[in-house]
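Lab notebook, bench 4. Still working through the backlog of constructs that have no structural model yet. Next entry is a single chain of 77 residues. Request: give me the structure tokens for it.
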Amino acid sequence: MARRPVRPAATGATRPLVIAVLGLHAVEYVDVGHRIGPVAAATEATVPPGAPLVYPAVPSRHGCAPSSGPTGPARAG
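Model written out:
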């Protein structure tokens, strides 16, 4: 199967689209960072350093097997 040459109009439209998508991702990343800050602060104030944590896993169509249990010592982050 031979490859078709890419039209200049297609490549010209691709660059602004990629820039727009990356820009929207950056805006979303900053927004989530602002909203997650209070949650992280409350967690750090409540959970003592080195405390074992439990992360339950819920089955999903993306491959997570149902499980729960301690994760071991908390990692320094």
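Notes after review: The mean pLDDT is 77. The CA atoms of residues 40 and 46 lie 10 Å apart. Flag for follow-up if needed.
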